[in-house]
Amino acid sequence: MTLEIVLVVAGALFSIGLFGVLARRNIIAVIMSLELMFNGVLVAAIGFSRFTAPAALMDASGGITEAAVRSALTGHMFAVFVISIAAAETALALALVFAFYRAKQSVEITDAAEMKN
Amino acid sequence: MNAAFDSGPIATLAFYLASALTIASALIVVTQRDLVRAVVALAMSFVGVAAIYFILNAEFIGVVQLLVYVGAISILIAFAVMFIGDLANAGTLSQSRLISAVAAILLLATVIFVAYNTDWTDIKDVTDADAVAGLTGRYEVAGTSDDKNVISAVNSDVEDSRGGALVDGSSHIGPALISDFVLPFETLGLLLIAALIGALLVIRGRQKDDAA
Question: What ipTM score was computed for the predicted complex, to two decimals?
């Protein structure tokens, strides 16, 4: 298990989500694909925090020091904040979908064209 | 790769299994015509990602993933699917699906190319004194023994017993949240309140205003 394969998994997750966002017509399905993209980014962040640390933060024998742990923790904090914001985003997006459905009786993304032209 | 970042064969096998589960479920999410099944696949995908977090020694993030994504977001989306029963043509893909697939595959190819053609060890070879000072912050530089600075291990029980970079990472997240990251943390509270109020306002509609 190396950083490269973690990045490939993260990229695959992000690409699948991107395909869903672009190709799906149902708005709820688009939101689901968006969550997949969030998860891809977070896997990459956790992978970087797991596999990279400044060499200067290692001790003489190549072991991990407390400072390296703190340094690696930045990726974890990033993930915590992104997860929280994604939760808020999902709640708001679903509220918008409900409002849109109430107005148009539809959840087709092509029907959301009021701002067009 | 540094010896400290090696992981055992069992962890590697578990990682491949979790990745296969995640990606297979994700493919179901974007192709399944039945939205309820897509939601279930989405939850499975989230579980797989949580397993990846556990394997990558991010236990706290894995637990948060299980609680927030599997426990809350999946359920929220499932409720949305059930409330909006308009599933007649939920599975249809848009006409640009071919272009979408090409774009996604190109992106994946780019990611793979960059991942395997970048020397990630560059990141680890920071020996410049100023950069080390910036990275370590309040940590004390133990001495300039030979050619590079050596940081003293403040906590000697953070040994690399499991082959992981974060043997005891979870216990550091709480203190970090109320010291280094206190401003983003408080801002996040504000954002959650704003999202809560905003969602309520949007979903409440205009019936009350019309009546008044």
Answer: 0.88
